[in-house]
């Protein structure tokens, strides 16, 4: 299953946009329409900090030693508020491993009962066939993990011996259950996250082919200098030239074998990321961010009396959404600097704001200035 298989592939000449994971990302037109009409399309929720892995790139620094969990009733209230703001999907990103959350199944069933798409980020270690069937029944999209086909590399990045075997078993259970069947034209129900770095750079093409041939969304992320990665993988960050080389190679593969065409400069390969326009990220403490690595709640500049005010236990989601800070965030495309300022692809791409923010504040730059810095990953 995990070997490279390129048989029966023929060169394709007609191009179309690649499929996306249903509910996870929204295209440029939908994203801008939502922003311009003051609507959310998605929220991202942390449910617990506990995790059965200790990934060396984890932005949340989660692990087995954390007992923090989100109050289920609070999550239900926030989801209701998000629905009133227009949300069509809830990304249960965990913060740790969401399948360890005590009310995980109740949460997924509740999201589905509101007619909202549950999108689950899981390392798939606990993904039995029965659990996969439950998620399939409740219209979920599932994002698994596959950082490496090499067991030693995967175990190292996941921070636990034997992780690779457990991850692959979970992914196989999702495939058996039917998650490789598309939800509809251009929409998939299964994805795998792959954090590209110097340790797995040579495997990217092989994993890409595996995903394309199995109707799996390849969530190709770039290692970001935030969280645990600052201490454990700082020397594994890719250079701009390495990012350019692998993205252009993947574009060539998609055009030649699968008939897909996409802009190679966007933060998430073959997908783009405009979530600052239409999404809010809510961490385990209830603090609201634009996205996971844009940790506004940890910066002293945004604290009032020593506390971050944009918290779901202090303000309604509507009040946070309408605040001057988050209005600024949603309109960041109008204030971009450097190469991003007058980019010809600005309608489709605003660069990775989370990466720009993380790099900027690490250098001591004002956080709002860091947020509008030119993309640190772009090779255009």
Automatic annotation (TrEMBL):
InterPro entries noted in UniProt: 4Fe4S-binding_SPASM_dom (IPR023885), Aldolase_TIM (IPR013785), Radical_SAM_PqqE_MftC-like (IPR050377), rSAM (IPR007197), rSAM_sf (IPR058240)
Pfam families tied to this protein: Radical_SAM (PF04055), SPASM (PF13186)
PROSITE patterns reported in the protein's UniProt record: RADICAL_SAM (PS51918)
Keywords: Iron, Iron-sulfur, Metal-binding, S-adenosyl-L-methionine
Gene Ontology molecular-function annotations: catalytic activity; iron-sulfur cluster binding; metal ion binding
Protein's name according to its UniProt entry: Tungsten-containing aldehyde ferredoxin oxidoreductase cofactor modifying protein
Residue ranges of every copy of the Radical SAM core domain listed in the record: 35-261
